[in-house]
Amino acid sequence: MSKPGYGNLTVLLHWVTAISILFLFGLSWWMMAIPYGDYRFLPFQLHKNLGITVILFGLLLLFFRFRPRPGRLPDGMPRWMYHLAIADHVLMYLLIFVVCFSGVLSSAFSGWGTDLWWTLTLIPDSAAEGWESEPLNILFGEIHVYSSWILLALLITHISGAVFHAFRRDGVLRRMFRV
Ligand code: HEM
Ligand code: HEM
Questions:
Q1: CB 22 less than 6 A from any atom of ligand 1
Q2: Does any domain span residue 2?
Q3: Between 29 and 36, the higher pLDDT residue
Q4: 11, 72, 79, 86 from 108: Cα distances, Å
Q5: Is residue 1 part of a domain?
Q6: Are 151 and 103 contacting, i.e. CB atoms less than 8 angstroms apart?
């Protein structure tokens, strides 16, 4: 018999994903402000590596949330709020993947390669390989920025919902603090 609510692995993955994404937002605004030069290389590599790892966290979170299945939403919640929560969750998953894949594609055409955590070459150096493309880098870069803003708006909605449930003391917040 499965316990109601999220499993421990889902809770753990939720927080690893959440902390990584919040860190990525902070890191990106700092790294974009660094003047051009070698000093930019390390924060960019860290951003790209953590971002690629978030794809894996997101996929695992999606997989494990179904085992055991999350509990029902609390009674007495307006219907629109229930639908907003579901829509926000679905869109967050979608946007996490759009943000990450547009980042991968933008960086693939930028002329710079990416070694996954400084080991395996995941994105080859397109400048050396001869398929560097400024227009494609800009196109996917724009998708990356705009989708990041949409993800941020969804996160603000999500965290506002969490604060609302904290004041309501209806047990929803406890589902994500039970490892
Ligand atoms: C970058 C930050 C975050 C991301 C990407 C994120 C993502 C998600 C996702 C995708 C779900 C849906 C899980 C599912 O049912 O499949 C979820 C659920 C949840 N999150 Fe977050 N989250 C973040 C931050 C937070 C924070 C800061 C809190 C609390 C203060 C929080 C509290 C919760 C709770 C309580 C649920 C369960 C809601 C329910 O059972 O209906 N999350 N989160
Ligand atoms: C959820 C994960 C991610 C978030 C939230 C995120 C967020 C951001 C943000 C907010 C920026 C700043 C954009 C600007 O102000 O112009 C940025 C830049 C960038 N990101 Fe990400 N990112 C993520 C994942 C990735 C991934 C997976 C890659 C590639 C492997 C990547 C590659 C880049 C690059 C190359 C830039 C610099 C773009 C430029 O020079 O114009 N990001 N990211």
A1: yes
A2: no
A3: 29
A4: 33, 42, 43, 33
A5: no
A6: no
**Exposed, middle or buried by CB within 10 Å (0-12, 13-18, 19+), for 35?**
exposed
Domain limits at 63?
8-176
Residue to substitute in 176, 177, 178 for testing ligand 1 pocket (most ligand atoms within 8 angstroms of CB): 176
Identify which has the larger pLDDT, 22 or 77: 22
Q: For the domain that residue 40 is a member of, what is the CATH number?
A: 1.20.810
CA of 82 to the centre of ligand 2 (A): 31
Examine residue 45 and state whether it is found in any structural domain, yes or no: yes
Residue 149 has pLDDT above 90, yes or no: yes
What's the total number of domains in the chain? 1
Measured N-to-C along each axis, helices 79-108 and 134-168 cross at an angle, to the nearest 10 degrees, of: 150
- What's the burial of 9, exposed, middle or buried (CB within 10 Å: 0-12/13-18/19+)? middle
CB 64 within 8 A of CB 7: yes
Ligand 2 pocket check for 107: Cβ under 6 Å: yes
pLDDT per residue as tens digits for the range 60-72:
999 988 776 666 6
Distances (CA, A) of 5 to 78, 83, 93, 109, 158: 20, 18, 19, 43, 18
